[in-house]
Specification:
The longest helix is centred in the last third of the chain and has 20 residues, at 246-265. Strands 1, 4, 5, 6, 7, 8 and 9 form a 7-stranded mixed beta sheet that branches. A 4-stranded antiparallel beta sheet has the order 11-12-10-13. The model has no long low-confidence stretch (mean pLDDT 95). The chain has helices at residues 4-12, 87-99, 124-139, 145-155, 209-219, 226-243, 246-265, 276-290, 314-320; strands spanning 23-34, 39-41, 46-47, 51-67, 74-77, 80-81, 107-113, 167-170, 183-186, 193-198, 296-298, 305-310, 325-327. It is built from 9 helices and 13 strands. The protein is of the alpha+beta class. Helix 1 runs antiparallel to helix 4 (145-155), helix 3 packs across helix 4 and helix 6 (226-243) runs antiparallel to helix 7. The structure holds (3R)-3-hydroxy-3-methyl-5-(phosphonooxy)pentanoic acid. The site of (3R)-3-hydroxy-3-methyl-5-(phosphonooxy)pentanoic acid has 14 residues, from helix 3 and helix 5.
Length: 330
């Protein structure tokens, strides 16, 4: 079996250590239009299906890395020291341990999230991508984006996509070693595209996506149909991006998200991330759409709703959904 350490060894085989005084990087958060749901390898975070996302401009994570003045690793989040007992600290340092060339290099890691907690957006994607890029910068490895995508993927699957800005496709790959499972940029710019985030709650979810997807794969009969649907949806979304066909993009993303949630709901215990306000928002979107407003939605492993629309209806959307946070990805 291929381990995380084996992956790092393979990726760094031609890299030399060229320590800098400080390494830094910014990675944007991303929202999948065709979702990653289900792992074929839990150790390496290898997905069962390919996925495609759009990044969220300046919402994301900035990370700075220096040598620590102390004989231990220090982690800061938005200028506050993170307790070594916390899950956040453990996840960061476990990842750093995979990559750092020597245990004598104690680090000071400063993480700044520009994702407002209120937006209820996951920060692990941008967090692990920024950490990977900042480590690459600090150690002077000069890794390619593809290699950094493979590394970030081992921190959190969706982090493989946060290495890039814009539309990003994560190819599931087929090798057991996962070295062909990385994300690539789709170089299309869609100026008119907007994403509106309707915050239902900023509370942390009870089942994280890692456990959620494992539970679904193990217990849902509907999951059998997911890989084929995801592959078909991915083709449609790539076509819609190429042709700038907003209706096809919106419809496919909405159906893809609902299908993912259907697999969660049909497992046991049923996994229901939606809250009453989530459902109310969906009904409102459908009502407005039936009245002629071209808006669609997607939802990740949580209750918050992301509305997809184009610039031409921005004012209407703003007026209909109070408190909505609107993002211009391009
Ligand atoms: O990267 P993870 O392990 O947090 O999983 C992300 C899962 C979804 O957000 C539901 C889908 C996706 O492709 O981002």
């Amino acid at each position: 079996m291929f381990t995380k350490k084996d992956t790092v060894k393979a990726i760094l085989r031609n890299s030399e250590l060229n320590l800098k005084e400080m390494g830094s990087a910014f990675a944007p958060s991303n929202i999948a239009l065709c979702k990653y749901w289900g792992k074929r390898d839990r150790e390496l975070n290898l997905p069962i299906n390919s996925s495609l996302s759009v990044s969220l401009a300046d919402l994301g994570t900035a990370t700075e890395i220096k040598l620590s003045d102390n004989h231990f690793d220090e982690v800061f989040l938005n200028n506050e020291r993170v307790s070594p007992e916390s899950r956040f600290y453990r996840r960061v340092i476990d990842f750093v341990d995979l990559i750092r060339p020597s245990n004598d290099l104690n680090l000071k890691i400063l993480t700044f999230n520009s994702i407002p907690t209120a937006a209820g957006l996951a920060s692990s994607a941008s967090g692990f991508a920024a950490l990977t890029m900042a480590l690459n910068d600090f150690f002077g490895f000069k890794l390619s984006n593809e290699d950094m995508s493979v590394l970030a993927r081992m921190g959190s699957g969706s982090a493989s996509r946060s290495i890039y800005n814009g539309f990003v496709k994560w190819n599931k790959g087929s090798n057991e070693n996962g070295l062909d499972s990385y994300a690539e940029l789709i170089p299309t710019v869609w100026d008119e595209l907007r994403i509106g985030i309707v915050e239902v709650t900023a509370e942390e979810k009870k089942v994280d996506s890692r456990n959620g997807m494992n539970q679904t794969v193990e217990t849902s009969h509907l999951y059998e149909s997911w890989p084929k649907q995801a592959a078909d949806d991915l083709d449609k979304i790539e076509y819609a991006i190429r042709e700038k066909d907003f209706e096809l993009l919106g419809k496919t993303a909405e159906q893809n998200a609902c299908s993912m949630h259907a697999t969660m709901l049909s497992g046991f215990p049923p996994l229901i991330y939606w809250l009453p306000e989530t459902v109310a928002t969906i009904h409102k979107i459908h009502q407005l759409r039936s009245e002629g407003l071209p808006i669609y939605f997607t939802i990740d492993a949580g209750p918050n709703v992301k509305i997809l629309f184009e610039e031409s209806v921005e004012e209407v959307v703003k007026n209909q959904f109070s408190g909505i946070k609107i993002i211009k990805p391009f």
